[in-house]
Amino acid sequence: MDSKTTRRGFLEGLVTVAILLVLVQTVLEDLAVFLTWEWRWRRALLLAGFGFDVFFTLEFLVRSITAASEGRFARYLSKERGWIDFLASVPLLVFNSGPEVLSLLYGGAAFVGMAGKLKLLKVVKIIRMARILRLLRGLKLVKQIAYIDSPMTQHHISRIAALVVTAELVVLFLYSLLPVFLPLKGVEERYTTGVVRTGQVFTEMGETLTPDQVLTLAAAHGEVLVVRAGGQSLYSRYDDSFYDRMFGPHDYAYYREGALEIFFDMRPVHIESARLSLLALSTVLVCLFLLLFVYAPHFALTVTDPLRVVERGLSEPDYELAARVYPEYGDHEVFRVARLYNEELLPRKLSEGGWTSMERIEDLLGEE
């Protein structure tokens, strides 16, 4: 084995490990939001997602350059699943994890000033849902399943998995686009509209606000975190250590009108988004699991195994095993061929002590 083959095997193994890790990271990132983990853990998962997107983007570029230099770029994109490498890397780095990391570097809360800002929230939701494209990477693991050593099984399962998972992701992505083009309001939109209205209630009271009134209003509006007027804090739901531990830059919204400043808790919005994302992730992962570990063995037993027995029986003189025929599938074309082999060809082979030439096989099949 030369050094080039060894190096390629190592890189393929590294990519396989990275695919498994990114699937875990994608689920954990939404789970952390849904369960309101501390910000340090959520930040670590976000940075890990950015690292994976950079890694897979570089992998796609390297594979593309290599394929182009060898004159097989079109084959790489189609038959070698290069389109999966692209969709699960470049768009996510450019539109999702990259901007999120930049926002961490520069910090700052979302500014809430008018209901028209909801359009931005919808776009952010779409980009977040697009993260499930990372699950397309799971399709690249099909060829790594140990029992799928049949080219036909591998090709068949890969094609079905690609069609099913891609169809699910497209439907989910289009569903997330609906609020942008249709007058629909989800939980996120209703919550943000309520935040804007709460800010307007505080604004209408203006300079007449007293600490008792602020306390009463804040108690009636659980989304209010901090209220300031003229640079002085009138109300805070939690202490500073809690904010430092539990809140990230995107977990609160900032409303300002004149001297009045209000910080709102936006975590319920992210929790709802994470819930929907986890539902989508779970659906795709369950489909992948069923295809790879339930349907693939079934296909191997009922299609490729009988054909392999017949093939070996025809091509190997000393191979004398009969193909197993399942009664419940007896009318299937594959098992009809297997039964013909068991009842006609195999007895002749055994009675004549095997065959050694293709001409003899053609005689048995009645071919001229």
UniProtKB/TrEMBL annotation:
Molecular-function GO term, any one: monoatomic ion channel activity
Principal location class: membrane
Stored SUPFAM superfamilies: Voltage-gated potassium channels
Transmembrane stretches, start-end: 9-28, 40-62, 82-98, 160-182, 276-296
Pfam annotation, one family: Ion_trans
InterPro entries, alphabetized: Ion_trans_dom (IPR005821)
Top-level taxon in the UniProt lineage: Bacteria
Keywords, in A-Z order: Membrane, Transmembrane, Transmembrane helix
Cellular component terms per the entry's GO annotation: membrane
Compartment(s) where it occurs, according to its Swiss-Prot or TrEMBL record: Membrane
Lipid bilayer topology: Multi-pass membrane protein
Ion transport domain sequence ranges: 15-147
Name the record gives this protein: Ion transport domain-containing protein
Organism classification: Bacteria, Pseudomonadati, Spirochaetota, Spirochaetia, Winmispirales
